[in-house]
Design a protein that fits this description.
CATH topology of the largest domain in chain B: Fumarate Reductase Iron-sulfur Protein, Chain B, domain 2
Structural class of chain B: alpha+beta
CATH superfamily of the largest domain in chain B: Alpha-helical ferredoxin
Strand order of the largest sheet of chain A: 1-2
Number of strands of chain A: 2
Distance between the termini of chain B: 65 Å
CATH architecture of the largest domain in chain B: Orthogonal Bundle
Oligomer: heterodimer
Largest interface: A-B, 53 and 59 residues
Shape of chain B: elongated
CATH class of the largest domain in chain B: Mainly Alpha
Strand order of the largest sheet of chain B: 2-1-5-3-4
Low-confidence stretches of chain A: 1-8
Number of domains of chain A: 1
Number of helices of chain B: 9
Number of strands of chain B: 7
Order of helices and strands of chain A: HHHHHEEHHH
Largest sheet of chain B: 5 strands, mixed
Strand content of chain A: under 5%
Strand content of chain B: 5-15%
């Protein structure tokens, strides 16, 4: 048979070089990043508590020796997720050399969210870079609580979100992140082979609810600052 | 039975050969009975083309009862037309309105090269099938069927996967031209049965490797494939294939 090599075994491919293996890497890193955005959102909710709680939480994070491991892991997940997904998108695009004249309709159609995942990813990349420049590498205000000097991130956040352009850009980017998550969380489970006839519709619901919690939680912060702390 | 006649404005993909540049041709279909199947409508159109001395529209067809999977075409953007769980031969003209414009295209995927007009070469599916979609049975008389007990629920699941007719609508519907639904149905129907157990890992590895080698895209889990599938193969199969392939890759020696 033409697909068998000489020794009689079937031609196979490595996990990392197969489309399924690559999708599974995108899924695992995606789920990792989904976990990160949830904890990031929850931590930032301290903005509603007050400057001291917010700054001390940030201080506790950056002074933890494990921060470098965590950051390295995050960067690795982010880059792997992005590069593998973009590479897959490119080969997916090339798998159809001539496009249809008409789009499918009804149940056979795909949603705009599903077709634009790569673009959402690029927007989230741009957002992340600008976000790091604005905050992590932004102006260094200091605060002092009980003799411990630390960065006054709270002051910076309040300052940044007085600017309507910033608030608008954050709202747009976070809504895009929400759509990305609403597809991604559920899709990752399916890609990793987690599918059960009884729970399947709940997986979809969980994916959407997860995206809503992260997005609404994050959005509440610039909106709170702009309208109530102005 | 009343027989309403209708006139339709067809926009059909015409392509002289594999290397030729294709284009849409506008053809009027007149006096089409609402009881005709979509293929019968094309037969009438072709009959008129023959009478006018023009070249007929080439399209694949065989059983015309929804089980062979030959009649591959995309109708107004939808593989096998607008209905679910339907092949083109089972689609009736009463589904369309008098005076309607209908765009008819071939299944489009790099791995399904166009041979002529609406006819595509879907032998990529055969090559995937050959890469592990079988069991190696010893010769000799068949053993008693009850020697290998199969629970009813498992048998039903395997049977549901085995109903895949290999038409390729999943590839045609997928935004990535992915063959995941087809390959997963073929992997599943044997993986679920004790007869398929022995070659389970090899099958998953071989068929997935061939699927990738053929140049099909990856799966984005949109579900357009299952919605376009004439036998409604479930997305559960794709998850099973992903599991099978993941564990087979881990266990590979």
């Amino acid at each position: 048979m033409q697909n068998h090599s000489d020794n009689g075994s079937v031609k196979t491919t490595g996990w990392m070089s197969s489309t399924i293996g690559r999708k599974q890497l995108v899924g695992v890193t995606g789920l990792g990043l989904s976990g990160f955005v949830l904890t990031h959102m929850l931590g930032n909710m301290l903005i509603l508590v007050g400057p001291q709680a917010y700054n001390q939480y940030a201080h506790a994070l950056v002074t933890n020796p494990f921060i470098y491991i965590a950051e390295a892991g995050l960067i690795a997940m982010f880059l792997a997720h992005m590069f593998i997904a973009l590479r897959l998108s490119w080969s997916n695009w090339n798998a159809r050399d001539f496009k249809y004249a008409m789009r499918p309709s009804g149940a056979k159609r795909t949603t705009f969210t599903q077709r634009s995942l790569w673009a959402q990813g690029l927007l989230i990349l741009a957002f992340t870079i600008l976000h790091l420049i604005t905050f992590k590498y932004g102006p260094n205000y200091t605060a002092n609580y009980g003799g411990i000097e630390m960065r006054d991130l709270h002051k910076l956040v309040i300052e940044v979100f007085q600017e309507p352009v910033y608030v608008a850009w954050y709202i747009v980017a976070l809504i895009v992140l929400g759509f990305h998550l609403s597809h991604g969380v559920g899709s990752s489970l399916q890609t990793l082979g987690i599918h059960h006839i009884r729970y399947q519709r709940h997986f979809k619901t969980v994916s959407i609810v997860y995206a809503l919690i992260v997005t609404v939680g994050f959005l509440s912060q610039p909106i709170y600052v702009y309208f109530l702390r102005g | 039975m009343s027989d309403k006649k209708m006139n339709l404005n067809l926009k059909v993909w015409r392509q002289a050969g594999p290397q030729a540049k294709g284009h849409f041709q506008e053809i009027q279909a007149t006096d089409v009975s609402e009881h005709m199947s979509f293929l019968e409508m094309l037969d009438v159109v072709n009959d008129n083309l023959v009478r006018k001395g023009e070249e007929t529209i080439e399209f694949d067809h065989d059983c015309r009862e929804g089980i062979c999977g030959s009649c591959a075409m995309v109708i107004n953007g939808n593989p096998h037309g607008p209905d679910r769980a339907t092949t083109t031969c089972q689609l009736h003209m009463r589904r369309f309105k008098d005076g309607e414009s209908i765009t008819i295209e071939p299944f489009r995927a790099k791995s399904f090269p166009i041979l002529k007009d609406l006819v595509t070469d879907r032998s990529a599916f055969d090559r995937i099938q050959k890469a592990g979609g079988y069991i190696s049975a010893n010769t000799g008389s068949a053993q008693d069927a009850n020697n290998i007990p199969v629970p009813k629920k498992k048998a039903d699941l395997a049977f549901a996967s085995a109903t895949c007719i290999g038409c390729g609508a999943c590839v045609a519907a997928c935004k990535n031209a992915s063959a995941a639904l087809f390959v997963s149905a073929k992997i599943s129907h044997l993986a679920l049965l004790p007869q398929g157990e022995a070659e389970r890992s090899e099958r998953a590895l071989g068929m997935v490797a061939q699927m990738d080698a053929e140049g099909f895209g990856a799966c984005t889990n949109t579900g357009a494939c299952s919605a376009s599938c004439p036998v409604e193969i479930s997305l559960e199969n794709i998850a099973r294939m992903n599991r099978e392939f993941m564990f087979a890759s881990l266990k590979k020696k």
